[in-house]
Amino acid sequence: MSEIAKIEVNGSVYEFPVIEGTENEKAINISKLRGLTGGVTTIDPGYKNTGSCESGITFLDGEKGTLRYRGYSIEELAEKADFLEVAYLLIFGELPDAATLEKFQNDIKKQSIVDEEIKKIVDAFPKAAHPMGVLSSLTSALTAFNPNSVDVDSEEAMYNAVVKIMGKFPVLVAWTMRKNQGMPFKYSDSSLGYIENILKMMFKKPGEKYVQNPVLVNALDKLLILHADHEQNCSTSTVRIVGSSHAGLFASLSAGISALWGPLHGGANQAVLEMLAGIEEDGGDTAKYMAKAKDKSDPFRLMGFGHRVYKNFDPRAKIIKVAADEVLSDLGIEDPILNIAKGLEREALADDYFVSRKLYPNVDFYSGIIYRAMGIPTEMFTVMFALGRLPGWIAQWKEMRLRKEPIGRPRQVYIGENLRSFVPVEKR
Ligand code: SDX
Questions:
Q1: 265 C-alpha to center of ligand 1: Å?
Q2: Coil, helix or strand for 266?
Q3: Burial of 23: CB neighbours in 10 Å, binned 0-12, 13-18, 19+
């Protein structure tokens, strides 16, 4: 017998089933609330207490600071898997065997050609255009070259759509960066692995041979794994709700990129670096910025700190912090920014304002330090976040459509004017 929740409203008591997930999370199913109560709904700004769906893709425990993709811990995946293995796992539900993984990699390579017409779209942007705006537009433009929206009920059609976007997206990312830097566009090199290919398209200089650096390859592979999915975050919820109207996959992904751009979400990795660089320029006075972060009259926030769900260390931040030390040491880079970041973390974790609000470093706090060491421009950091999150967005979109979720259409509580009559302009 499942548990029941009771809500008393308008003098009556209503009963609602409580559902329990495979990790013992409980939720009150209020899908019949409005009908039973004659119109009463719930309200929950930011959906801090509201689940939008049941999902079998990613599980995270904000109190314990744990994160798993399809049951595998993020620690194991970051250490033992590669990004395409994790992408396949998220999208299709199981780790691929060797033959399946090789086919997935080869099918993606076959799809890594982008229509030359897309270059005209990139050229039309001003050089100073923010790369996230360019990437969102280019992703939406893919619809123009792939007009048929995917038939989600056909495994073959869905697989083909997956390898198509997984093949083309890195090219769009690389071209976005090359545009920003005024460099010629590079095509995909099918002789290379997924990560090596991305790095070469991003960094190969005209007239020079591009030499792969395994430190950068391993660092980027790990960063993309760590960013691959994170249950119902803002951008993923955006992809799901746009897809719930049966808008196409590329259009839904384009909307997700726009949501990720915000500095409270994926845009935080750029904001963190700008904040750290600002503190360095200001003499490295971290105490001054800690005070600003705590001052309610000051709009300054400690970017890269705090999280809607994690009320403990973000497990990704722990892994990235170790990787940042390793990458900078391997590259022989002494970056004062890293020391400022560590100083801020030390001070925040000893400060009651942060401790009492359970504000810890999140995924964005250290990631930008690695991107910067790799030579990636600050404005491209959130594009790198999108590159990692792509398989998660695809997996969540696919799950939503295969579960035939209804179109997302929240209710509201109206607080505007009551009925009033129109007044002709001459009488206003
Ligand atoms: C990502 O959801 C996801 O999973 C996202 C993500 C993913 O993988 O998809 O993990 C990626 O977006 C990580 C978060 C990146 N954003 C930032 O680093 C921006 C800085 N952090 C915040 O703005 C904030 O912490 C949020 C937006 C992340 C979470 O905000 P909430 O859950 O709405 O919490 P809140 O704003 O209500 O804050 C609660 C309290 C407030 O103080 P009081 O009103 O209780 O006095 O904590 C304070 C806030 O003022 N607070 C901060 C703070 N974050 C929260 N104070 C100073 N600095 C901060 N960073």
A1: 9
A2: coil
A3: exposed
